[in-house]
Structures are given as structure tokens and as C-alpha cells.
Amino acid sequence: MTIQQLHQCFLECSQACTDSRAIPDKGMFFSLKGENFNGNRFAAEALKKGALYALVDEAEYATSEHILLVDDVLQSLQELARFHRNYCKAKVIALTGSNGKTTTKELMHAILARKYRAIATRGNLNNHIGVPLTLLSIREESEVAIVEMGANHKKEIALLCGIAEPDYGLITNFGKAHLEGFGGVQGVIEGKSELYDYLKMHGKHIFFNADDPIQVERIGTYPKTSGFSREDDRFLKIAFLQANPFVKLRYESLTIATQLIGSYNFNNCAVAALVGHHFKVAPAQIKEALETYLPSNNRSQYLRKGTYEILLDAYNANPSSMKAALENYRQMEAAPKTVFLGDMFELGESSGEEHQQIAELAESMGFDAVYLVGENFSRVRSVLPAFKDFKEFEAFIKNNKPVAGHILIKGSRGMALERILNSL
Predict the structure, then answer these.
(1) 88-292 in CATH: which number?
(2) Rounded mean pLDDT of 405-418?
(3) Average pLDDT in the 79-101 region?
(4) I need a labelling partner for 142 at 20 to 30 A (CA). Which of 58, 94, 198, 368 fits?
(5) How far apart are the first and last CA of the chain?
């Protein structure tokens, strides 16, 4: 079966799906395989549940004319996504970075949707499976598609660019994330910059933070760019006003009061505004989009619970985002201040050193109380109370509730520190 023939079958379907437990009516099911599962086994079941077609790569499961046999289901998913992306006319904007990808993607979508028929990555489906699924969600009437790309090792962004073939791209930042897979900070810079490499090689457009020296260096003299800056008049001027706790900024003489906590979210808002500016979204619409965006999923959320005001930023964490969150919290006009910090994952050999540095930083900032949670934090040299796991921490908090006031909660997704809200 050619990719053109497969695409004709796909056009009959409502959407692509890889989960046999959630088959959409008239969907196309891709029978992916992994170390511990074989999706081919569920192809016939997918048809019974309402799928119009199912793809398999093992002949014994091709028991129906609506079960399509291909050489490799994953490869077919990726090739079909690339074909469909070019079949549709939407401009594709790709973004990656160590921190803030999903928030930036959501802000960009909120802005561009004010003027265009825009789609964006759902949740954080940003890997070699999620990116193709996003591309296959583009409709013929779509005008803009925002594609988030994640990576934890080199060559991954290059692979995703080869699938998505973006017309525009941006990198939110370079930080200490996935150090284990990238082999260090320089590896992170090189890996994320694969997006720049693709865009430059194909003469496409780059959006960037002109105040970030690493971004400026990696872009070099490439001409097809648009940048924002707090001070430099050569670029779109966007001023940071405050983050106490919510980010305020000034764009085109408009003061924009967002519902995002943390000064680190300024750059996310600014680059989203830059993209909107480039696509000629009216300043008033950009202001409305940024002001009405409400964070969720434990990302930069501000919550009230009883006598506590909580800054919940527990979707993920790495040394860069942890440091930014602590520094922002220190600058806030609030008292008293309590901090709950959970382990940071995927740091490889530098894990011990990075956790030690964060513990020392938190200890030096003069917060009223700091609690460290997780196996890595429990091994640091510090006077701060540390707990080897969540269960131990939860038992302590139930009997030793913090004083009324503000609490910052920050940790990697695997720690799920938001669970402690039930004990406050």
C-alpha cells in the first residue's frame, strides 16, 4: 500500500488513535508495539469498538479488509503524518526548549486562535508518536498548527523536524533538563538547536528571545528571524513589569495582567506575543488572550486552600526551573513563605550535585520553612528537614501543618507533589 492510498483511507476517518481503550467512532487505529505490549493483537477489537481502519505489521492479524497490513506501523504513522501535513495548507510552527514548552504552546494557540483556525498539540503529546498524532489532527480548513516537540537525547528534535517540516520555530530556553540523555548542558544546547539547524537549512523563520545570549549565538547571522527584547530597540519591545505573584508586562503601550505566576513565565508570554505580532493579531486581541489564559495541570497555578495561598508548579522540575521558581518566590511580597521541593529526575551522574546545589540555594534564601522530599533530596548535606519519599512527608505534614501563609510546591512529575494538597 502506498502512502497516497493510506492517506485516502485516513481521509475517510475521524481521527488517528493509538489507544485501543479509547477508540473514536470511525477512527484509524495504529497498532503500535513496545517492549511489553503488541498493539497488533487489538486491531480486530478496535474495529468492533468503532474504528474504520486499523494498521498492523504482522500478517496473522490482517483478518479483515479494514485491517491494513504495512511493513512497520510506527514508520507508517510518521510517514502518513508528514504526507498529511503537506496535503493540508496550514502553516506549522514548531517549538521546543528545556522549560515552558507546553505553557508557551497554549499561549500561542490562545493568541492565534483569535484570528486564525488554529490547532495545537494536545496536552504534551510531543514525542515521536505524539507529534505525528498532532499533525494528523490538522484539518483541511486549518490555517495554523502549533507543534510542541520534546526530547531527552540528541537527534530526537531532528527526527521530529523531519516529520513535521515546520515553517516557523522557536526554542523557549536552554536549561538543565534531561541531562542524563543529553550528556550535559552542552548536549542540551546542541540537541534543542536541531530545530534552529532545520529551519536555517530550509530557509524557514525563527522566533527568538533577543535577550538570551545562547539563542543569539546559536542563530548567528541567519536573517529570517523575529525577536523580542526588554530593552533593545532593534527588536519588538516587550517590558516586564512584575510577578507578584502574577506576571504583568507591557506590549504596544498596553499593560497585560496575566493569570500566570512566576517571572519565568514572562518569556513564555513575550514570545507568544511576538508570534501573534508577526501574524498580525491585533494588540488588543493579544492582550485578551494572555489575560484570559488560565493555567492548569499543576503548571504555574495559584490556588487558595484554607488559610494557604499556594503556588503550584509541580508538573515538572529540573535545576533551571527549580532555581527560577525559588528566585521568583524570594522576590514576592508575601509572608510567611514555606517551600515544598520534590526530587528532580533524569539528571544522571550530576543528580547528587544538582540536588545539593538546590538545597543550598533554598537554605540561603531565608524562607520561613523548606521541606525536601524524595530519595535524592534525602541524601543532601543540609539542615533542612528531608523525607525519603512522599508517604513519609505526607505523614509529617498531617501532624505538623505549616503556618498560615504562602506555599511554593515544586517537583518533578514522578513525585506528584500536588497530592500534599489533600493534607493541608
Answers:
(1) 3.40.1190.10
(2) 96
(3) 96
(4) 198
(5) 58
pLDDT at 185: 85
How distant is the alpha carbon of residue 252 from its chain centre? 27
pLDDT band at 195 (very low <50, low <70, confident <90, very high): very high
Q: Return the amino acid letter for 118.
A: A
For residue 281, the one-letter residue type is V
CATH fold label, 301-423: Protein-Tyrosine Phosphatase; Chain A (3.90.190)
Which CATH number is associated with domain 3-71? 3.40.1390.10
Query: CB burial class (10 A; 0-12, 13-18, 19+) of residue 399?
Result: exposed
Looking at residues 250-267, what average pLDDT do you find?
95
pLDDT of residue 112: 98
Tell me what the mean pLDDT of segment 214-222 comes to: 97
Query: Using CA atoms in the order 200, 83, 73, 193, what is the torsion angle rounded to 10 degrees?
Result: 10
**101 touches 265 (CB < 8 A):** no
Confidence at 309, pLDDT banded by 50, 70, 90: very high
pLDDT band at 34 (very low <50, low <70, confident <90, very high): confident
Q: Are 232 and 213 in contact (CB under 8 A)?
A: no
Domain ranges across the chain: 3-71, 88-292, 301-423
Residue 98: name the closest of 149, 41, 22 by CA: 149
